[in-house]
Amino acid sequence: MRLMPPRLRSLPATALMTVALLAFAGDALAHGVAEGDKAFIMANPGVNIIPYMYLGAKHMVTGYDHLLFLFGVIFFLYRLKDVWTYVTLFAIGHSTTLLAGVMFNLHANPFIIDAIIGLSVVYKALDNLGAFPTLFGFQPNQKAAVLIFGFFHGFGLATKLQDLVSSRDGLLTNLISFNIGVETGQVIALSIILILMTLWRTTPSFNRSVVVANAALMCAGFVLTGYQIAGYFAETAS
User: Fold this and answer.
1) Which of 138-143's residues contact partners 24+ apart within 8 Å by CB, and which partners?
2) What is the domain count for the chain?
3) DSSP letter at 112?
């Protein structure tokens, strides 16, 4: 997962990859819930296993903050064993705070949580560029970081669902179903990303594009963070 050596030159194609990840999400907002989905959740108390699985999968596949972070996590992972390890850590973190946040009604400002999620993307880009040992003289534990940021990613959605769940009837079953959907969507999204990454790594452009790809990833993270901070101040000012 360490930066490949120097004199790497940028290619437009790598910037386009980051843009494609953002475009893939359509006009969804980070951790947002579509209006139709809101109406369904609020109008259908009780156990709804299949619909909640669908909503969970949809959230992951259209959650560009998740996709950008996972793209950064697997950027330098070449073995499926390593991919599985890091993605499992992320899933454990995401699932824990999603379930606990809603079940125990743990509250936090969603703008702050989503700003931290944006910073998780910035962190991963910096990590891929080898910035921490170079600039700060230390290397964060990469597995611990993925797990911790997984907690924030899960809590981000929990803050949204708390406002939508009007009945606790069947809540645990629905949340487990939602989480299964999230993990299913994650497998689908990661499979697509891994296929594209594998094809890209076989081309000479990959080594030449490491810096620009992660710089674009970092910029996307700062944009996400700035958007949430602006939302927080707009909310507090109103």
Assistant:
1) 142/1, 142/86, 143/85, 143/86, 143/89
2) 1
3) H
Whether 5 maps to a domain, the answer reads: no
Is 6 within a domain?
Answer: no
What distance in Å separates the CA atoms of residue 93 and residue 143, rounded to the nearest whole number? 11
- pLDDT tens, 105-152? 898 899 999 999 999 999 999 999 999 999 989 999 999 999 999 999
**Residue pLDDT, tens place only, 39-67:** 777 777 788 899 899 989 988 888 889 99
Q: Quote the CA–CA distance of 64 and 31 in Å, as a whole number.
A: 9
Cβ atoms of residues 121 and 224 within 8 Å: yes
Measured CA to CA in angstroms, residue 97 lies from 90, 152, 185 at distances of: 11, 7, 18
CA neighbor of 177 nearest in space, from 85, 10, 12, 53: 53
Residue 4 in domain: no
Do residues 131 and 194 make contact, with C-beta atoms less than 8 angstroms apart?
no
Domain of 153 in residue numbering reads as 12-237
Residue 210 lies inside a defined structural domain of this protein: yes
Q: Can you tell me the distance from the alpha carbon of 44 to that of 171, in angstroms, rounded to the nearest whole number? A: 11
CA distance 96 to 148: 11
32: closest CA among 53, 59, 57, 9? 59
Burial of 105 (0-12, 13-18, 19+ CB in 10 A): exposed
Quote the CA–CA distance of 132 and 122 in Å, as a whole number. Answer: 12
Q: Could you list the beta-strand ranges (E) of 63-153.
A: none
